[in-house]
Amino acid sequence: MKRKRLFSLMLIFAIVMALTACSIMTDSPKLLTKEGIKPYELSESEKHILQAFGIEGNSQIISFHAPKEAITMNINVYRLESDKSWSSIGGGAISIGTDRVPSEQLIGTFTMQLKDNYAIDFNVNTNGRASFRTDEIILDTEIMASTKSFLREFREIELNKEIPVALMIYDNGTTMRSYSLQDYFEPSKFDGMDLVQVVTITFSDKEF
Questions:
Q1: Which of 1, 40, 144, 145 is in the most buried spot, having the most CB atoms within 10 Å?
Q2: Contact at 8 Å (CB) between 40 and 63?
Q3: Under 8 Å CB-to-CB from 120, ≥6 apart: which residues?
Q4: What are phi and psi of 25, to 5 degrees?
Q5: pLDDT tens digits, residue range 150-200?
Q6: Exposure pattern of 131-166 as b/e (b: 16+ CB <10 Å)?
Q7: H or E segment at 10?
Q8: Among 160, 94, 83, which Cα is nearest to 123's?
């Protein structure tokens, strides 16, 4: 049953991603027309699909419109170590290169889905499709409390500077304070938490 449910969730998420891809191909007004990054505006039918399968709170779709100078989009996933430093645990990158092929500019959508085993699935749609996935994480403690923060508003893009778009905190305690995406830049704020993950996006004027 667990495998069937997992397959169903993956299938439904793929359907939503396909709907998003279709929006890109038809120049939907939902896509950003100015340089920046913001949550993708789901249609009512897309929202109902995610809600029906209980994955709305564990997934997000982001629209991006990179500056003309940007040729590479880097997705990084970090885990907070015991010394309060961030350790890279996965991610990926796409680039149109200096030749700007197959497109002149990085415009499209970025999707992520959080898994039960703390792995994260990613898809990038921008004149083509790229997929990434981080490895599962095995904890030696039982998680009793958690909180997740996603990008909720438009953000301007500054070349070669990370933009945190998702933050996940897990702990074995019974209480949890609130955190913001900007706390990524002050990791000491997560003192005492059992697992902290963050996803960042960086647009660069450099190749891989």
A1: 40
A2: yes
A3: 77, 90, 112, 113, 114, 133, 134, 197, 199
A4: -70, -25
A5: 999 999 999 999 999 999 999 999 899 999 999 999 999 999 999 999 999
A6: ebebeeeeeeeeeeeeeebbbeeebebeeeebbbbb
A7: helix 2-25
A8: 94
- In 3D, which of 108, 153, 159, 113 has the Cα closest to residue 129? 108
> Which token pair is 186?
């002050």
Q: What is the pLDDT of residues 116-162, one digit of tens each?
A: 999 999 999 997 889 999 999 999 999 999 999 999 999 999 999 99
Tokens of 99: 């030749």
Distance CA 189, CA 180 (A): 10
Radius of gyration of the chain (CA): 17
Closest by CA position to 59, among listed 49, 68, 67, 69: 49
Which amino acid is located at 173 in the chain?
A: G
Q: Spell out the domain ranges in the chain.
A: 2-204
In angstroms, the CA 137 to CA 117 distance is: 6
Task: Output the pLDDT for position 47.
Answer: 76
Q: Give the Cα-Cα-Cα angle 16, 136, 173 (nearest 5 degrees).
A: 100
Q: Are strands 120-125 and 129-133 parallel, antiparallel or unpaired?
A: antiparallel
Burial 3-42 (b: 16+ CB within 10 A, else e): eeeeeebeebbeebbebbbebbeeeeeebbeebbbbebeb
Prediction pTM value: 0.84
